[in-house]
Specification:
By secondary structure, the protein is of the alpha/beta class. The protein folds into three domains: 276 residues, NADP-dependent oxidoreductase domain (TIM Barrel); 82 residues, no CATH class; 105 residues, Rossmann fold, CATH 3.40.50. The protein is built from 19 helices and 16 strands. A hairpin with a 6-residue loop joins strand 1 and strand 2. Helix 6 runs parallel beside helix 7. The chain is globular and about 70 Å long. The model has no long low-confidence stretch (mean pLDDT 90). The structure holds iron/sulfur cluster (SF4) (2 copies). The site of one iron/sulfur cluster has 15 residues, from helix 14 and helix 15.
Length: 502
């Protein structure tokens, strides 16, 4: 295993980091298998585990804690809090304490301000009395060593955040699918001494599931496309650790092979150059070179075209439990958009003026006007715009309510509730959230009480809105029996929708 120093923290982190949100804990013996994989990873030199209270319904933290204990080694683990959910310093501090308790550890080395979507969000999270202050308190008490963040924000926003000097490390989405877009982030991070960890290095599964497309990244015939993608990420000297969520021992071994041979800087440079060249040779691909920038209609053509690349791939995106090739394509596109620039259009009207300026400048000679039109059609059919969210809510909330419940707690519901509150500012109904995660019961989630679903009939809300994408159908099947008790139950998503948040 190779190790690099993480920014200015002085900590040496392993090239491969263990992601914990993909373990198959729902399968028989799932918890034990996951701990086994994590222990083996540690044995092989992995010393960074990325986990969160929100992964696998709280199981991921328990897996991480158990693996650290069983291995008996010094391993760096994360605790996370999203500052728009844990809005106060107290809430964030409590989250850190709860996570440590859940893992059975006295300290976590890295606190991660989780899923920062924009510079504006970061400013809210770091305002006096906000989540960041809670993290500072935990740091003073030596519950955490370093304050970092994970971002799904546009690159320019990530750079602005790093320049505030408030974070010591950043976890960003970076893969062969977005080779150029995040390069400025890597460059500025190196200048400032901010450590960089990468996630989504396999493009959300797209790369291993499309090995032929990505064979250009392989250095020799024995190297798999997935291993090549990981090695390519690590070839960037600014990147300390490449995260990967491994679900089997075989996947772990394959990932380890990617870091088997230490490349010298010349080899790494050659690897990056070879990929850059091959990438621009793939017919019909947007390389992210950004020569098309400066659209008079303000369209972020680079982000849109990088997302359009996803149409070319088969499969990928299995976690959303949906079927149908067109819908899966739409999910892939919106997933990429969200990872690259957290982009959701305000409505599905294509703003392109068809001036043709971008097409004249495109180095790949891509039919940009046609592609942008196609994308907006797909946003419309899959309800991926702010206007769609608002229309959906207007259609759902047509009555007078005393009690409104959302199901389940999470960033997704937070997004839906914030639209609801903007749309119905004079609504006097009590709002609550039902969630099966008992750790959340009786707590305030973004200021809203989370209840045990066993209290459903006692509370008897007028309406329950299922604001969960992945398990929408299962939740509905579980609770539809309460319709006969006069409770209206509505799924917020139609079958053809893509998620509104990734
Ligand atoms: S053709 Fe459309 S997308 Fe291209 S520069 Fe003109 S307005 Fe922008
Ligand atoms: S110029 Fe063409 S290839 Fe380059 S980023 Fe724009 S659309 Fe992509």
């Amino acid at each position: 295993m190779q190790y690099r120093t993480f920014g200015k923290t002085g900590k040496m982190l392993s090239a491969l980091g263990l992601g914990t949100m993909r373990f198959k804990t729902g399968e028989p013996n799932g918890f034990e298998n996951a701990v086994g994989i994590a222990v083996e990873a540690i044995k092989q030199g992995v010393n960074y585990i990325d986990t969160s209270f929100g992964y696998l319904g709280g199981q991921a933290e328990k897996i991480a804690g158990e693996a650290v204990r069983r291995s008996g080694k010094d391993v760096y683990v994360t605790v996370k809090s999203n500052g728009l959910i844990d809005v106060s310093a107290d809430a964030c501090y409590k989250r850190i304490c709860d996570s440590l308790k859940s893992m059975g550890l006295k300290k976590a080395h890295f606190f991660i301000l989780w899923t920062v979507l924009s510079y504006d969000d970061f400013i809210k999270m770091t305002a006096a009395g906000g989540a960041y202050d809670g993290a500072l308190r935990a740091k003073e008490e030596e519950l955490v060593d370093h304050i970092c963040m994970s971002a799904h924000a546009p690159p320019a926003d990530i750079i602005k955040i790093m320049r505030t000097g408030k974070i010591e490390g950043v976890t960003i989405s970076y893969s062969l699918l977005t080779p150029h877009i995040f390069e400025p982030v890597l460059r500025v991070a190196a200048e400032l001494g901010v450590g960089v960890i990468t996630m989504n290095s396999l493009g959300g599964g797209i790369i291993p599931q499309n090995p032929d497309v990505f064979s250009f990244a392989r250095q020799d015939e024995d190297e798999s496309a997935a291993a090549a993608a990981l090695a390519w990420s690590y070839a960037h000297p600014q990147i300390t650790t490449v995260l990967s969520g491994m679900t089997t021992i075989d996947e772990l071994r394959e990932n380890l092979r990617a870091f088997d041979k230490a490349e010298n800087s010349d080899d790494s440079k050659k690897r990056i150059e070879a990929v850059n060249k091959s990438f621009s040779d793939i017919s019909g691909f947007c390389t992210g070179c950004a020569y098309c920038s400066g659209c008079p209609a303000g369209i972020d053509i680079v982000s849109l075209m990088q997302a359009f690349n996803a149409i070319k791939f088969t499969s990928g995106i299995s976690d959303y439990r949906r079927k149908g090739e067109r819908l899966l394509e739409n999910i892939r596109i919106c997933f990429r958009l969200s990872m690259i620039s957290n982009f959701m259009p305000s409505d599905a009207q294509n703003p392109c003026l068809q001036c043709g300026e971008c097409e004249k400048k495109c180095t790949q000679r891509l039919p940009l006007i046609k592609r942008i039109d196609e994308l907006y059609k797909r946003f419309d059919e899959s309800a991926y715009s702010e206007k769609h969210i608002i229309e959906r809510l207007k259609n759902i909330f047509t009555g007078n309510y005393k009690n409104i419940a959302f199901w389940s707690a999470g960033l997704y519901t937070k997004k839906v509730i914030s639209y609801f509150q903007k749309l119905f500012p004079n609504q006097n109904a009590d709002i609550l959230i039902f969630d099966k995660n008992e750790k959340l019961w009786e707590t305030l989630y973004n200021g809203i009480r989370v209840e045990n679903p066993d209290r459903l009939l006692e509370i008897k809300p007028d309406i329950i809105v299922i604001s969960n994408y992945v398990y929408s159908e299962e939740i509905y099947n579980d609770i539809k029996k309460y319709e006969k008790d006069g409770i209206q139950i509505v799924k917020i998503h139609a079958p053809e929708d893509v998620p509104w948040l990734f």
